[in-house]
Amino acid sequence: MSVPNDLSYTRSHEWARVEGDLVVVGITHYAQDQLGEVVYVELPEVGLGANAGEELGTLESVKAVAEFLSPVAGEVVEVNERLAEEPNLVNEDPYGDGWLVKISGALEEDELLDAEAYKELLAEESH
Fold first, then answer.
1. For the residues 49-56, what does the mean pLDDT come to?
2. What tens digit of pLDDT does each residue of 81-117 get?
3. First CA to last CA across the chain, in angstroms?
4. What is the CATH number of the domain that holds 83?
5. pTM of the model
6. Which of 27, 35, 60, 93 fits as disulfide partner to 40, beta carbons 3.0 to 4.6 Å?
7. How many domains does the chain have?
C-alpha cells in the first residue's frame, strides 16, 4: 500500500501536501481502498472557511458514503473540478489527479502524522 514520504497524514486517512502558500488535500490509498469504487464526490464551495478536523465534503462509493475532513484551518481556494466527471480519479490516483481541495493555511505538524507514524496507524487498524 502506497504511503508517500513527502506527505502528512491524519488519523481519519486524509493526506496533506504543502504547495507554496496552499495545502493540497486528498484521501489516502488506504481510504480509497476501504471505500471501493468512488462514484460521486461532493466538494465544498470555494471560499468556505475550514477548521482542522471539520467535514469538507463526502465521497460516495458503491459500498458506502464517507466524509472527508480538513487537515488544516484555512479557506478553500480551489476544488478539483475534474472529479465531477471523473470521480474514479480518487481511486486511480489518490495522491495525484485524485486530489480533492486546496486550502490556504499552514500545516500544524504536531496534529498530523508523518509517513512512518501513518504506517504504524495502518498496522494497528489491520489487527
1. 94
2. 999 999 999 999 999 999 999 999 888 777 899 999 9
3. 16
4. 2.40.50.100
5. 0.94
6. 60
7. 1
